[in-house]
């Protein structure tokens, strides 16, 4: 795979495929690299006391080779066109039409390699009135409806639209891109025919509105912000306890009865206003007003003991340090450490895919900038030391 992408959506897709065994050649700008190498603090420790790469870069770039090529120069673009015939996949996230002037657009690349799967990731796609606009996750969370249903409800303290705490439009697009690439590869293997994949953050954000979008399409009612409450289920939200907070996730009427019994709230179990989920949603305000004082009578851990014993879904709100100290997360080996060739140790979040025969493997840490340039150019193109030295002297690599 030739990875011309940077920042998050594209690198997330290529990292996922790299975890599953793909050979990823990440092309970066000489001396600068992927933008996220500078998106800190925090930063890794560098050599000789210098500042290393930002932690951000490490979240999406393991299992890749880093090759520095300036393809804005004809000689650099020519190097990539020589590599393309040996590639199965190319991933890029430049503006629509942005690679055509370098001869790296899909039409040109497909003539060099008709079986290549070429995945473009942009903010708004390659068609439509917004195709030329730059796309950033924050803007797409806003324009794509997510922020309109995220945050405290109007009329309550702190009410305003909120973005999610991680770049989910980028991440979902990266995952959808991974799925599309795998499907296109199956087609290419069967037919010898590659294709162009046109992935847009806006499309993916609209898709993952999921039940909120379905609610609107069916009812015509525009969903609003409900804070931590659920639009279709109640009670399904955060409640304050005697010493913190508890997420209560009552997903069906049987769990509601089990909750009431465990909480000593028999009167609510018998209340006709709350007999079914639909009635609990319709009478949400009265329901929550009844539950809040009751849940303040015990601690979070106390409620968890009582409710878990009654098989009522509930849980604490953990900070990120608590997540990685959680016995379940530890048992599932969701943290791993990998060292670079220079010995720099990098802590990583493991791939969550668990497979019995072909599990994801972290073969190498996120690379330092350009550490594989000479090796890959020798192996892929058969360049000599003198040719590589000349390219470096001319600023091509």
Automatic annotation (TrEMBL):
**Protein known as:** Acetyl-CoA:oxalate CoA-transferase
GO-annotated molecular function: CoA-transferase activity
Say which enzyme class the record assigns: transferase
Instruction: Give the species.
Output: Candidatus Phycosocius bacilliformis
> What EC number(s) does this enzyme carry?
2.8.3.19
Alphabetized UniProt keyword annotations:
Transferase
Superkingdom to which the source organism belongs: Bacteria
Key word Signal present in the record?
no
Q: Which InterPro entries match?
A: CoA-transferase_III_domain, CoA-Trfase_fam_III, CoA-Trfase_III_dom3_sf, CoA-Trfase_III_dom_1_sf
């Amino acid at each position: 795979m030739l990875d011309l992408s940077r920042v998050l959506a594209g690198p997330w897709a290529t990292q996922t495929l790299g975890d599953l065994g793909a050979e990823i050649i990440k092309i970066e700008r000489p001396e600068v690299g992927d933008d996220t190498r500078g998106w800190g603090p925090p930063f890794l420790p560098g050599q000789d006391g210098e500042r290393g790469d930002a932690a951000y870069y490490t979240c999406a770039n393991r299992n890749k080779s880093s090759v520095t090529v300036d393809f804005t120069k004809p000689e650099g673009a020519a190097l990539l066109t020589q590599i393309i015939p040996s590639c199965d996949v190319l991933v890029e996230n430049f503006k629509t039409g942005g690679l055509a002037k370098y001869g790296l657009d899909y039409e040109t690349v497909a003539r060099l390699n008709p079986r290549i799967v070429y995945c473009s990731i942009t903010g708004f796609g390659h068609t439509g009135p917004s195709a030329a606009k730059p796309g950033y996750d924050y803007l797409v969370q806003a324009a794509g409806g997510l922020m309109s249903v995220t945050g405290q409800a109007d009329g309550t303290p702190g009410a305003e639209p909120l973005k999610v705490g991680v770049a989910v439009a980028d991440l979902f697009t990266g995952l959808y891109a991974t799925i599309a690439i795998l499907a296109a590869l199956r087609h290419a293997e069967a037919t010898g025919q590659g294709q162009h994949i046109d992935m847009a953050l806006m499309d993916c954000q609209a898709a993952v509105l999921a039940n909120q979008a379905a609610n609107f399409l069916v009812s015509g009612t525009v969903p609003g912000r409900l804070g931590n409450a659920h639009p279709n289920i109640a009670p399904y939200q955060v409640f304050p306890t005697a010493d913190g907070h508890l997420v209560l996730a009552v997903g069906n009427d049987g769990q509601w009865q089990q909750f009431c019994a465990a909480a000593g709230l028999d009167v609510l179990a018998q209340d006709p206003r709350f007999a079914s989920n639909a009635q609990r949603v319709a009478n949400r305000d009265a329901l929550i007003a009844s539950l809040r004082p009751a849940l303040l009578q015990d601690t979070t851990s106390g409620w968890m003991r009582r409710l878990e014993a009654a098989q009522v879904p509930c849980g604490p709100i953990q900070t990120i340090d608590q997540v990685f100290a959680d016995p379940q997360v530890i048992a599932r080996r969701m943290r791993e450490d990998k060292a670079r060739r220079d010995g720099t140790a990098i802590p990583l979040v493991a791939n969550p895919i668990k497979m019995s025969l072909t599990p994801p493997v972290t073969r190498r840490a996120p690379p330092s900038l350009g550490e594989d340039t000479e090796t890959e150019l020798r192996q892929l193109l058969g360049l000599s030391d003198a040719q590589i030295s000349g390219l470096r002297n001319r600023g091509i690599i």
